Each structure stands twice: as structure tokens, then as C-alpha cells.
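C-alpha cells help. Consider this.
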Amino acid sequence: MDDLNEQMEVRRKKLLQLRESGVVPYPNDFRPKHVSSQILSEFGAVSDDHLRALPDDFTMAGRIMGIRSFGKASFFHLQDRGGRLQVYARQDRLGKEGYDLFKSLDVGDIVGVWGKLFRTKTKELTLEAHGLRLLCKCLRPLPEKWHGLADVEARYRQRYVDLMVNSEVREVFKRRSRIIRIIRRFFEDRDFLEVETPMMQPIPGGAAARPFITHHNALDMNLYLRVAPELFLKRLLVGGVERVFELNRNFRNEGVSVRHNPEFTMLEFYQGYATYEDLMTLTEELFVTVAKEILGSPKVSSGDQVIDLQPPWRRLSLTEAIEEYGKVKREEVATIEPLRAFARKNGLQVDTEIPYGNLLVEVFDKIVEPNLIQPTFVIGYPLEVSPLARKDDANPALVDRFELFIGGRELANAFSELNDPLDQRDRFLKQAQSRKIGDEPASAIDEDFLRALEYGMPPAAGEGIGIDRMVMLFTASSSIRDVILFPLLRPEH
């Protein structure tokens, strides 16, 4: 820390000297005409004769990343939004005053340069600086080593430095942006309308999750940051918007882990006159489309395994999955008492009041989920854990629902929508009873949503896909914090 303070003091003294010599250290009148990636793309492979024939009007701006000085000449790398390009600065070209300015600069300073392209003896495309200006003095030294476990939290906390020094991190977020563009185009091409629904809601609904609570002073009422947009998107189905999607934030006042951030991005979409089975096909198409555009192949690397997204994906019922991966017979998990015994045997703390369906899902999460590496649709979910899903016609104890698992993580949740207002009211009432006995995340009764259903909602299916987890898949990232620019962390002090 003392060394850091000393270096910062040296830089502050340089800043003072620059001001005293008449240099403006923070101007805003320099306009770069070129970007490193554009220069490398257009001129990286041309002949030396072609380079010599080019005009000397290449103008760039960016951050100095590494300086190699040889007395009256120096090389440095200039980093801009496109990447890095080597710059050659020499006294006989810049003049003594210009080169003295350059020698006063530090790694991290932002400069503007202009000059002519050439290729060095090592064949590296380089910009010879005919002029140089300081655009922003950097007062903190850049870290020499920013990789490794010891710096993980610092990287998340100071993402601006992480992006500055780690090109692979910048590429993750460029890829994230591209994935979202592909998703938008995918749904727009299929006649879905993108919408925005309220972030602050009077009733937290659409998912079983603990909400964040805020207060609106003018209306003197509590509001909840949304845990899901579901009930508002279904209102749009009632209104005649038969295909609708939203890409936006959800907020859940729950744990933080490599898979969970309290604020996260969700894609949620609804299609009228469709079933959850139709959405399985649509989901396969979406993931393959993204994979081919991002990776050029439906195969994705995940650690030491290769995930094949080529359809059709495996379909497995919840109980079949527990039988297979728990190595247990169906009768051993078919009723609550043997299921409790099986859960305890596998290290689960079992609440004596927990319903059968909820415990079945907890057992699945513990025993099965980490093993579902190849894309798998898990179906056959119990009614008690699916308050907004349509009952299975063949078995009313189950619902028409799937969850998608890839790489040992849940990526999507979908179901055929419940559009019977009387059934929905009954399920809301049961959820309200659960709240009274301490199940806080259980849904409250949304009377306006019930009123909307009474006007008639067309048969439909809906799905939510976690964008952060999807980006983790397509960037081979092991933590959700690696794909969120500014993940939530504890305060430093």
C-alpha cells in the first residue's frame, strides 16, 4: 500500500508539472478518426510498398499499455475500443518538446496520436507518431498482475480496471451484447412484440421468491421490485398481444453464489395457442441459432466436456431422473415418508411440514441437477410447486411444465399457462395460506390479474430463460459474476 501511495504521489507531481508547463491534462477537443481493429483489418496484410504509399493522416486515441524506451525512441501499445496497436515515438519526429512530453507520460495515460503506418523488422504493423497529445492523466498505476484467485474479488469490484487490463474480459461482455442482439432478432423474426412492464409492483408475483421492498412517499404505499414480469405479460395476452417478450431485470432478495446474483437479467416470452411442448422446439431452435452465430457450431465447450446442442434434446420426468441418478426404485420416492427417509439419507435437512412435491424438487436439485450436462428437458413437475401452470390432463397432480438443464445448471423454466380464473384463484388462496405459516416467497393474491383472466386469456405457453446463465454457457464462464459487469458485493469497509 505504501508503494502504491508513493507511485500515486509521483503521478500527482507529474500532473502539477504538466499544468505549470502549460499542458492541459484533461482536454476534450481531440477527435480520433481510426480504431485499432479497423487499421489492423484493412492494413494488417498489405505490402510494405502499399504502407509507404498511404498518407500520414492516421489518427487514434486510447490508453498507453506498456512502454519500451530506447533513449531517443520508444514503442508503446495504444489500447482503444477495438484492441491494441503498437505506436513508435521518436525524438527526431516529435521534436524535443513533443518527445519530452511523451517521456513524462505513464502507463495508463490516455493520449491522442497521429502519423503514418509502417511495419517493423519483426513485421508488426505500427503507427509512427508524428504528433502526440495527453488527453487524460492517469493518477493510479495499473496493476502488473490482475489474474489469479487472490485478485478475483478485486476484479469484480473494480471492473473498470479488469476491463482495462484483461482483453478476454472485454470479449465476454462483447459476446454478451451480441447474444442479446441475436435473441431479440430471433423473436422479432417470429412476430413477437418486445415490451417493458413495471419494475415496481404493488404485489410481488410471478415467481416464488423473496422480494425487495421499497416505499413510494407520494402514494404512501409499499412497492416491490419485481421478482418476475409474468403476471403483467399475461395481462397482455388477455389484451390480444398473442406473442410477447421482455428482456429485462428481475430482483430477488435471496442468496449470492456463483449461480445467483440478487439482480439478474431474464428473457420471458409468451405465445398464444401454444403448449409447453411447442416451446421445447422453440428453445432448441433459439439455443442452436445462438451457438451457430457465436461459435459457428452447435457444440459448446464446458470445462473438460463438450455439450452438443443439436436437437432433439433429451426429455426426462422428475421422478425418472431421481430414479436414474439417485439409484432408487420408484416406490422408494412415491410417497412422502419413504421420500423423507431417502432425502435424509442423502444429506438433506427435511422440514416435517414440507409437502411431497416440494420435497421431491429439493431431492432433484441435490441429486440430479449437477449431473445434467447435456441439454435435458425435465418434465412432470408437481402441482404444488407450479401455481401458475396448467394441470396435466392425464394426471392432475402434475402440470404441463419443463425446466431446461445444461451443464449442470437450470437455464429455463416453461409451462402451458393456467387460464382458468377459478382454478387460479383457488391456487392463489392456497399460496396465501402458505404465507401465513411462514412460506414468505409464496405468491400473494393479485385481484387485478384474476380480473384480467375473467375477461379470458387465450390458451398459451410461456417461458423464462436466465440470460446471465445462458451467457455463462456461451462464454465458458464458471461464475455468474464473470458475465455481470457489476455484480453485487459486500461493501469494502
Observations:
- Residues 167-189 form the longest helix (23 residues).
- The chain has 15 helices and 18 strands.
- The two ends are 16 Å apart (CA to CA).
